[in-house]
Amino acid sequence: MRLGVWENEGGRVGKRAPLGLEQPGESRAAPWVPTVPLADVPDEGATHVDVAGVPVCLARSRGVVYAILDECSHGRVRLSEGEVADGAVECWLHGSTFDLGTGAPKCPPATAAVPVYPVRVVADVVEVAVPPPAR
User: Fold this and answer.
1) 18-28 pLDDT, tens per residue?
2) Which fold is adopted by the domain 40-117?
3) What is the pTM of this model?
């Protein structure tokens, strides 16, 4: 029996192909890295993890798990320490709010988006794919 995986695709969690089968267009450049058990990501909350040396904010909102850079583009503080609600995270320092699915700022003072990363849940463990740094 092959187990399936769950992945955040366009803001929705959906059934994916069996493990071991690469999806069309899926890149091997950013390997999936196991991070924390799904239970460690609170409903309407966030937690910090490091993935390949990159600070990542894992957030869960409306039942969907997201992964974004854990650094506000305005205040350079951890977004994982902010409030999560309605698919967004609010920076605790100056109140900028970022869309968890796109990384786009929803209100000032931030004007630049933060990177978002592919995320999936396999056997109740959150996995994130962070691309290697550009050369």
Assistant:
1) 333 334 444 45
2) Rieske Iron-sulfur Protein (2.102.10)
3) 0.78
